[in-house]
């Protein structure tokens, strides 16, 4: 019996299968997931924007400072945003009911929000922006965190 060499595509196939073995549901093994459930949302206009922050810089108002941003449709006065493949650490979430689709929170002349908003741990204030320390939470290796955020209008 003679040894038959592996087809040239076989090493690539084996490497691909090895990579698949370290993945689950499209996420790297050991990474975390944060599911943000927002509601109740007043009205049916617009979408809910969720921003995930990894540190206090820019939280909660600077869109460009967010680690990730997700827009979610409103369904029966609720919206859900999911952030997956997250490494362990401290995070905070800011959400806004973006009624006009401009992908930012609108404010009046005094700088107060004119659209519904909220943060993780539901620490909103009437006259000032929520602080990172009040909104942060810990995500451990492989943990799935579910946050329920109420909007303040």
Short description:
The protein is mainly beta. It has two helices and ten strands; from the N terminus they run αββββββββαββ.
CATH homology-level superfamily: Immunoglobulins
Report the oligomer.
single chain
Helical proportion?
Answer: 10-25%
Order of helices and strands: HEEEEEEEEHEE
CATH class: Mainly Beta
| General form | globular
C-alpha-based Rg, rounded: 21 Å
Mean pLDDT: 85
Could you name the CATH topology?
A: Immunoglobulin-like
- What share of residues are in beta strands? 25-35%
Contiguous uncertain segments of 5+ residues: 6-27
CATH architecture: Sandwich
What's the total count of β strands? Answer: 10
Keyphrases for this structure?
10 strands, 153 residues, globular, 35% strand, three-stranded mixed beta sheet, mainly beta
What's the topology here?
Blueprint: H1 9-21, E1 23-24, E2 27-28, E3 32-38, E4 47-53, E5 68-72, E6 79-86, E7 89-98, E8 117-119, H2 132-135, E9 137-139, E10 144-149
Parallel strand pairs: 3-10
Antiparallel strand pairs: 1-2, 3-6, 4-5, 4-7, 7-8, 7-9
């Amino acid at each position: 019996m003679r040894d038959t060499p592996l087809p040239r595509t076989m090493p690539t196939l084996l490497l691909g299968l090895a990579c698949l073995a370290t993945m689950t549901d499209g996420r790297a093994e050991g990474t975390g997931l944060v599911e943000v459930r927002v509601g109740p949302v007043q009205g049916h206009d617009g979408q809910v924007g969720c921003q995930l922050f990894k540190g206090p810089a820019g939280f909660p108002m600077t869109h460009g400072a967010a680690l990730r941003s997700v827009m979610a449709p409103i369904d029966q006065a609720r919206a859900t945003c999911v952030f997956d493949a997250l490494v362990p650490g401290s995070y905070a979430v800011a959400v806004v009911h973006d009624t006009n689709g401009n992908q930012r929170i609108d404010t009046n002349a005094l700088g107060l929000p004119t659209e519904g908003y909220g943060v993780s741990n539901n620490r909103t204030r009437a006259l000032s922006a929520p602080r990172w320390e009040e909104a942060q939470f810990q995500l451990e290796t492989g943990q799935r965190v579910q946050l329920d955020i109420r909007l303040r209008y």
